[in-house]
Amino acid sequence: MNRRTSAMLVSVAVGCSVLTITRYATAMADTDSATAEQPTPRLEAQQYFSTTCATCHGVQGDGKGPAGKALAVKPPDFRSLKWQKSIRDEEIEQAIAFGGQKVGKSSLMPAFPYLAQRPEVIKALREIVRELRTTKRSPTHR
Ligand code: HEC
């Protein structure tokens, strides 16, 4: 490799790392502005559902999330009308905040102490659970 080629390679390498650093800095700035804005309870609940609840309950609420399938007590099928009719709103909210045991169900449904302090997020989660009652969503339930 002659001197010119290696000088060029070095500058390309430096250029690349500067680019990477700039991209990283931009990404960090984006994250900052995202956390500065308070997400709505609904958004927070949706994120919570898809990242946490869905591991057991499944994204569609069918109870067949990757972790849910392995449990001794299976999570209920939120899509089922029969199940939806069997449970009151308060029970759903209590189960989410304080765990299954609190409402006479299995302790495999964990308590979420963080959410217990956020009633507006619990309410939004309960609405999400209700809206899963069928896999098809009506236009008013987006
Ligand atoms: C570790 C797995 C797991 C996670 C995570 C989990 N659940 Fe559950 N959940 C269960 C199981 C298992 C049951 C069934 C308990 C039973 O029937 O005894 C259940 C039951 C429920 C019920 C019905 C309670 C009742 O009284 O029948 C609701 C509502 C519920 N979960 C909502 C949620 C929400 C919302 C989240 C996220 C904040 C969540 N779950 C996270 C495992 C989980």
End-to-end Cα distance, whole Å, is 61 Å
SSE order in H/E notation? HHHHHH
In the CATH hierarchy, the third-tier topology of the largest domain is known as Cytochrome Bc1 Complex, Chain D, domain 2
CATH architectural designation of the largest domain: Orthogonal Bundle
**CATH class label of the largest domain:** Mainly Alpha
Percent helix, as a range, is 55-70%
Describe the largest sheet.
none
Let me know the number of strands. 0
Mean pLDDT over the full residue set? 83
Distinct ligands, ions and cofactors found in the model: heme C
Low-confidence stretches: none
Strand content: under 5%
Number of domains: 2
Rg, alpha carbons: 23 Å
Characterization of this structure:
It is elongated, with a radius of gyration of 23 Å. It has 142 residues and is an all-alpha fold. 59% of the residues lie in helices and 0% in strands. It folds into two domains: 1-37; 39-142, Cytochrome Bc1 Complex, Chain D, domain 2, CATH 1.10.760. Heme C (HEC) binds next to helix 2, helix 4 and helix 6.
List its salient traits.
single chain; 142 residues; mainly alpha; Cytochrome Bc1 Complex, Chain D, domain 2; 2 domains; elongated; binds heme C
What are the SSEs and their pairings?
Elements lengths: L2 H34 L4 H17 L23 H6 L2 H10 L14 H4 L2 H13 L11
Bound molecules: heme C (HEC).
